[in-house]
Automatic annotation (TrEMBL):
Domain spans labelled UPAR/Ly6: 20-112, 113-209, 212-299
Entries under SUPFAM superfamilies matching the protein: Snake toxin-like
Name assigned to this protein: Urokinase plasminogen activator surface receptor-like
Keyword line: Secreted, Signal
Provenance organism: Xenopus tropicalis (Western clawed frog)
């Protein structure tokens, strides 16, 4: 037993002796006072990070050196808000004190998409009322995000956003209908050429009955989603799922028709407070999850889509243009 402990201690000492050693500092590109550091076992590279911030004629450069994991290596990122830009780059190496060289970066946008954003909240989000921004590598698509809410047949809210975004949800419609309230969010994107989101988009309003019916309600604090107060509505257009939304206490706060993309997204609130979970199914009037145990077969043989991770409409450096309801 004692021999095994001696071997273990020997291995620990060997690991400590053989740990990577890097130079560490935080400062400017011209003045970064470096000190030696022994890296922990999980940090296997020496890193140099450089940040450049530019605002008008003013610019600043910052350098950080030290130990790192490989996850941070060889990363670049750009954020441009029109009046300020930030560029970051990182470089790694794997031998002792290999990050000794001076490291800096410039705001280079040659490989980045350039997209339009709305210039002002008080102006129409169309030319000539647009600015341009450079996108980063992750959000390298030009996007338009339109939102419209209708209450009792009247448009009560709408918004228009242009900017940079990701391409996972291109040309999708997140929509639901509770009978008295409808919400539409249209996500359009392009990367065919720079500034490709120059057109003025519109939300397709769904009018045609598609033959699907669902239970519907919208809780506003008056117990509208109690079983005796719910009603059946006819779904329209691409609203092909019946949905039920719950708060954190598993209390139903909303029911109705929805698009498939809405079912696979946890969209924050959508004018309905305290939504913690959304559950969807395919089949007429199948959205009675809180009234039937999950093991009970529901008529119509619905296929239930449980909530997936949030669909992130990550718009970097965009300006929201609120459009007054007509």
């Amino acid at each position: 037993m004692g021999k095994k402990w001696r071997i273990l201690l020997l291995l620990i000492n060997i690991c400590q002796v053989n740990s990577l050693r890097c130079l560490q500092c935080i400062g400017s590109t011209s003045s970064c006072r470096m000190v030696a550091k022994n890296c922990p076992a999980y940090e296997t590279t020496c890193i140099s990070l450089a940040y450049r911030s530019q605002a008008g004629s003013f610019s600043s450069n910052t350098v950080m050196k030290g130990c790192s994991t490989k996850a941070l290596c060889n990363q670049t990122s750009v954020i441009d808000t029109g009046n300020r830009s930030i560029y970051m780059a990182a470089s790694c190496c794997e031998t002792d004190y290999c990050n000794i060289n001076r490291y800096s970066t410039n705001a280079e946008f040659s490989n980045r998409m350039q997209c339009y954003t709305c210039k002002s909240n008080n102006l129409s989000c169309a030319l000539p009322n647009l600015n341009t921004v450079f996108c980063d590598e992750v959000n390298n698509w030009c996007v338009d995000v339109l939102t419209k809410e209708i209450t009792n047949g009247l448009v009560t809210a709408s918004s228009y956003t242009k900017g940079c975004g990701s391409g996972e949800a291109c040309n999708s419609l997140l929509a639901f209908d509770t009978g008295s309230f409808q919400h539409y969010t249209q996500y359009s994107c392009c990367n065919s050429q720079t500034q490709c989101n120059n057109a003025f988009q519109s939300i397709p309003i769904l009018d045609n009955i598609n033959g699907i019916t669902c239970w519907a309600c919208l809780d506003t604090g008056n117990n509208e989603c109690a079983a005796e107060n719910q009603k059946v509505i006819s779904c329209k257009g691409t609203l092909l799922r019946c949905m039920e939304a719950y708060d954190q206490n598993r209390r139903t706060v909303m029911k109705g028709c929805s698009t498939v993309t809405y079912c696979s997204a946890t969209f924050p609130t959508l004018n309905v407070p305290n939504i913690a979970e959304i559950q969807c199914c395919a089949g007429n009037n199948c959205n009675n999850f809180t009234q039937f145990p999950t093991s009970t077969e529901i008529s119509g043989s619905p296929s239930t889509d449980f909530r997936l991770p949030m669909l992130l409409f990550t718009l970097l450096c965009t300006v929201f243009c609120i459009v007054d309801a007509n």
